[in-house]
Write a structure and sequence with these properties.
The chain is mostly beta strands. It is built from two helices and 35 strands. The strands form nine sheets. Strands 3, 6, 33, 34 and 35 form a five-stranded antiparallel sheet that branches. Strands 15, 16, 17, 18 and 19 form a five-stranded antiparallel sheet that branches. Strands 24, 25, 26, 27 and 28 form a five-stranded antiparallel sheet that branches. The longest helix has 11 residues, at about 410-420. It is globular and about 50 Å long.
């Protein structure tokens, strides 16, 4: 189904937001990114290299007993010897936040959701010089019979959840979730992330996985209509299970009889999911479409589901177009991040609450056709601030605009698409966790990714590293084009000032990660993600040195 994006005064009056123009029909194939031409929208505006075969993980809670602070953590003082905030959510998915020395409660986080947790022990590394020590990386494979199904049709395909990871807040046990195709029927599963694991702890028949997390008494999952064509999906739901995998409830977020009637919702695609332990709530945040004035517009869907299975719709249209999403849970706070190309344009942020506003923290050029000159890396909880790494291209002005639909200057729209597909600048925004956000853009810290000439960045990930104010950044570096393109993976450890604590370091391609999943942090401070190699799921663990 073709989804169109256009605006009208009636739409503005009815929804209080506007939407961009153009048709989004193009899809990226492996190794390429779609560009907007002749009114067709680019593949989410992000150069993600087409279809994804590797996979990310999730961020987790910090859990150490010592707070960040001190020399070498980025220069800003924190709480001295008090307990860290249970962990930093990162990678765009929420994570468990603690607040007590024991690591606090776990929260699930997105990508597909992840849950992170604190613990009685945790990472002790605090200073930038300590982070110079090499980390260790290991991987285990699930049973070869657990073959994941990688969705290949639909807008923004490369940013879909593939093999998200979640962590038990108390035990540190790792789980990985994905969609399987068994006899032509898609089912969502959650599997222990241990060597040779072959039996799912949760199986959800006739569903595609959009995210999952570990709760205080089992698991929660965001599931979608398993239609192979994402644009034709008609429903989204949240399910909760006990530790044995027994279903406690399934709550429809929406279920449409068709996608042609007015106000019908459908086509859930990119997504993040979280568990808020302090409220015993699940949070679903994803992109979707709605039929308005005979046109399917794209926007964000944001809702919570309580322990009894009751949905509270926070916003049925949070950002337009909402091309990519991130969640981070830190104690009682839940941070939201989105990427917009029209209303608004750029990176927008809010804390979950009553009618959260799409506050732009950094303006990016957007063409209103599904392309923004930027990529989200995630969010990292640094106790007093939320760190937001991102990628952009500095070859064009961020105020460049092709105009509003239907009077789009296609030459300028294509120029924005070209820049977006070649992200070459790595930035870091620090968002205060208390007080009122200032109006206008926050000032980024720019980081040196030491890109070779002609290369660009994809799949940016981030996670808190150690118990101080340090962050691990990871990305894919793409050189060449088309079939000649090569993708390499790198990490770098920095503090909040942008100082490099561990320089750019190559990561073996066998430890790769997807665009649509996040890194998750375990109670001991190790970072976990998953990937798919030769149709086999592997869980990767990075342990700080």
């Amino acid at each position: 189904m073709r989804r169109e994006m256009s605006c009208s005064a009636l739409f503005l009056a009815a929804f209080g937001v506007a939407c961009g123009g153009g048709n989004i029909t193009s899809k990226a194939s492996a190794g390429t990114s779609a560009s907007a031409t002749g009114g067709s929208g680019a593949n989410g505006g992000l150069a993600t290299g087409g279809s994804v075969t590797a996979s990310g993980g999730l961020p987790g809670a910090n859990g150490g007993a010592n707070a960040a602070g001190g020399a070498g953590t980025g220069g800003s003082a924190t709480t001295g010897g008090s307990a860290v905030n249970g962990g930093a959510a990162n990678g765009g998915t929420p994570n468990a936040a603690g607040g007590s020395p024991s690591g606090g409660a776990a929260t699930a986080a997105g990508g597909a959701a992840v849950s992170a947790s604190g613990g009685s022990t945790g990472p002790t590394m605090v200073t930038c010089p300590q982070a110079a020590n090499p980390y260790a990386v290991s991987a285990v494979e699930l049973d070869a019979g657990l073959v994941p199904h990688v969705v290949s049709q639909g807008f923004n395909t490369s940013l879909f959840a593939q093999v998200p990871v979640a962590v038990n807040a108390t035990t540190g046990d790792v789980f990985v979730g994905f969609t399987r195709d068994v006899g032509g029927v898609l089912s969502a599963v959650i599997v222990p992330g241990t060597s040779g694991a072959g039996t799912p702890v949760v199986t959800i028949a006739s569903a595609a996985l959009g995210g999952f997390g570990v709760t205080n008494n089992g698991f929660g999952a965001l599931i979608f209509d398993p239609n192979e064509s994402v644009d034709d999906r008609t429903w989204a739901a949240v399910s909760r299970f006990d530790t044995s995998g027994q279903q406690l409830f399934t709550t429809d977020l929406f279920r449409s009889a068709n996608l042609t009637d007015a106000n019908t919702k459908g086509a859930p695609d990119t997504s993040r999911f979280a568990y808020i332990a302090s409220a015993d709530q699940l949070v679903a945040y994803f992109g979707h479409t709605e039929m308005i004035q005979g046109v399917r517009h794209q926007g964000g869907y944001l809702a919570t589901v309580d322990a009894a299975g009751k949905q509270t719709l926070v916003s049925g249209w949070w950002g337009s177009h909402n091309l990519d999403q991130r969640l981070m849970v830190s104690g009682a706070q839940t941070a939201l991040l989105g990427l917009g190309d029209a209303y608004p344009k750029g990176i927008f942020f809010a804390f979950l609450g009553n009618k959260p506003q799409t506050h732009v923290i950094y303006t990016l050029a957007g063409n209103g056709q599904g392309t923004t000159n930027g990529q989200l890396g995630g969010m990292v909880d640094l106790d007093d601030v939320v760190a937001v790494p991102f990628v952009t291209n500095d070859s064009i002005s961020q105020t460049l605009t092709p105009g509003d639909w239907p009077n789009i200057d296609q030459t300028i729209a294509d120029q924005i698409s070209t820049a977006a597909a070649n992200g070459n600048k790595l930035g870091l925004i620090l968002v205060p966790k208390s007080g009122t956000l200032p109006s206008g853009d926050l000032v980024p810290v720019w980081l040196d990714a030491s890109l070779p000439s002609g290369a660009h960045i994809e799949r940016l990930k981030s996670a808190r590293y150690g118990s101080g104010g340090l962050m691990l950044l990871a990305w894919a570096e793409v050189s060449g084009t088309g079939r000649n393109a090569t993708r390499s993976y790198f990490t770098m450890i920095v503090d909040r000032t942008g100082a490099i604590c561990q320089p750019k370091t190559a990561l073996a391609t066998g430890n790769a990660f997807t665009a649509g999943d996040d890194f998750v942090r375990r109670p001991d401070g190790s970072l976990v993600w998953a990937n798919i190699t030769s149709n086999r799921v592997a869980v990767v663990t990075l342990t700080p040195g």
